[in-house]
Amino acid sequence: MLGLGVAGVAGARDLSLSNDDIRSRMIAESIRGYAGNCPCPFSTMRNGRRCGGNSAYSRPGGQKPLCFADDVSPAMIEHYRKTHAQPTAG
């Protein structure tokens, strides 16, 4: 299994993540960080219905959570890789 023997390489664990893995993590973190009940159109309201157009994502102005893969740019992925690199053991 690759990646197990590279503990001394800076960021080895996070550098092994695919761009899709990073997108998923960034979206999940963004949704968790939203204080309300409807960050994304696919989220559900307290009554169990989908948020749809009532979501923060759909409303103009205010907070804009990451909800979809297209919301995460290549620059955002690169920034994630740089800021989540693990220090070298040593």
Write up this protein:
The chain is mainly alpha-helical and 90 residues long. It has one domain. It is 31% helix and 0% strand. Helix 2 (19-32) crosses helix 3. The longest helix has 14 residues, at 19-32. The radius of gyration is 17 Å and the shape is elongated. The two termini are 23 Å apart.
Structure described in brief:
With 90 residues, this protein is mainly alpha-helical. The protein has helices spanning 12-15, 19-32, 74-83.
Question: What fraction of the residues are assigned to beta strands by DSSP?
Answer: under 5%
Please compute the radius of gyration using only Cα atoms. 17 Å
pLDDT under 50 segments (min length 5)? Answer: 1-14
Helix content class: 25-40%
How many distinct folded domains? 1
- Please give the number of β-strands: 0
Number of helices: 3
Keywords:
90 residues; mainly alpha
List the helices and strands and how they pair.
Elements (H helix, E strand, L loop, with lengths): L11 H4 L3 H14 L41 H10 L7
Helix pairs in contact: 2-3
